[in-house]
Amino acid sequence: MFDSKTRTMVVVGAQWGDEGKGKLVDVIAESADWVVRYQGGANAGHTVHIGDRSFVLHQIPSGIMHAGVRCAIGNGVVLDPENLFVEIDELVADGIDVEGRLYVSERAHLVMPYHKLIDKASAASKAIGTTGRGIGMAYEDKVARRGVRVLDLRYADRLRVLVEAGVERANAQLERSGAAERASVDDTMEAWAKLTPRLLAIAEDVGLCVHRAIKSGAAVLLEGAQGSLLDIDHGTYPFVTSSNTTVGGAATGVGISPMSIQSALGVVKAYTTRVGNGPLPTELEEPLHTQVRALGNEFGATTGRPRRCGWFDGVVVRYAARVNGLTGLAVTKMDVLDTLPQLAICTGYRVDGELHTEFPADLSMLEHAEPVYEWYEGWQQSTQAARKLEDLPSAARAYLDRMEALCETPISYVSVGTRRDQIIGVHASL
Asked: Which candidate in 26, 46, 58, 234 is catalytic?
């Protein structure tokens, strides 16, 4: 999707996450100069398939799989350096050259060991369904202006003061929650002493680097985590993540002007999934629910948790298209539907007898919402060999046509398998 006019684009999830953003970023990154992650943390899990090998990237942008592409982790990310270096070392062991290609924003906030302890002990975290990796707690400290940034690691005395205050707060909270574990200042400082030299070696003013790249005409791809419906402001609050997952978060999460973003690709599954608690209006009933989960291998890349599955929700995706200003859609996992005799697309919700076609902010409406469906005949044949739109069965094309019309956004890509080559360019150049 990069051309002479489009040099900066965002790839964003347009449902509740796990849409297959990693594969799309991987494909598009072949023609990119930079790939930059702009929010989230190690709670994300982007799976990239190369031949018979699969790579799960939690913090490193998916573009790292392409030699010559520079990758950066922006200031909007909360960084877990311990996990980052495990990820780097695994890539290197698999023959992926990372040296001189990966940068971390010096403004990025750090996930501290005590954040993870609080997260695991928190009843609120359990209710919302977090990954227990300290992401929300790190963002909480960031907003409260008491967080630890990468640049703070340059000053041992400053770091110790911040750690002492953080440990004191954490232990008080752990005591109130009845947890047995406690954070330690000395253990925390010892851990950072080992990580600091390696982290500072890749720390940069990422915003400035990306700004200069854009000014030079480089192709820059901005990569988000989770999905639009998990956005802290625009998602199904409180069952959301702790950052802005939408396109609006890309500029602030990297440190560039929003005016420099020229294109926004929304990634959606051909059906709907979400992990954890919160509304899912089109959720399937058994035994179809278990069947679709098995067909799609719907288990979290980061946690292994089973995903809840539902029919495609056009109300959700049209809302995501509006909030993000999407210029195109990428439909993934089309092949998962190959064997189903009938398919449904949700076009609205009926609440207390009244039809609603716009996604509501009030979750109490969703709790009582009855999805309004349009039903379609399944194609009941494999789509995995399709490489052009014309190769798809007519029933599959009709299904896609309705998705496109309902979401008011052109479909740019259709994915029909896990491999790089199993993708159809519709209104896009591959």
From this structure: 46
Please report which confidence band the pLDDT of residue 62 belongs to, taking 50, 70 and 90 as the band edges.
confident
* Whether CATH 3.30.70.600 fits 8-106+205-425: no
Q: Does the annotation mark 119 as catalytic?
A: no
Q: Is the pLDDT of residue 429 over 60?
A: no
Rounded to two decimals, the pTM is: 0.91
pLDDT tens per residue, range 107-132: 999 999 999 999 888 755 555 555 67
Domain positions in the chain = 8-106+205-425, 109-200
Q: Is the pLDDT of residue 302 over 70?
A: no
Find the catalytic residue in 18, 26, 80, 231.
18
Q: Which residues contact residue 89 at a Cβ distance below 8 angstroms, ignoring those fewer than 6 apart?
A: none
Asked if 46 is an active-site residue, the reply is yes
Overall CATH class of domain 109-200:
mainly alpha
Amino acid at 150: V
The model's confidence at residue 46, banded by pLDDT at 50, 70 and 90, is low
pLDDT mean over 329-345: 97
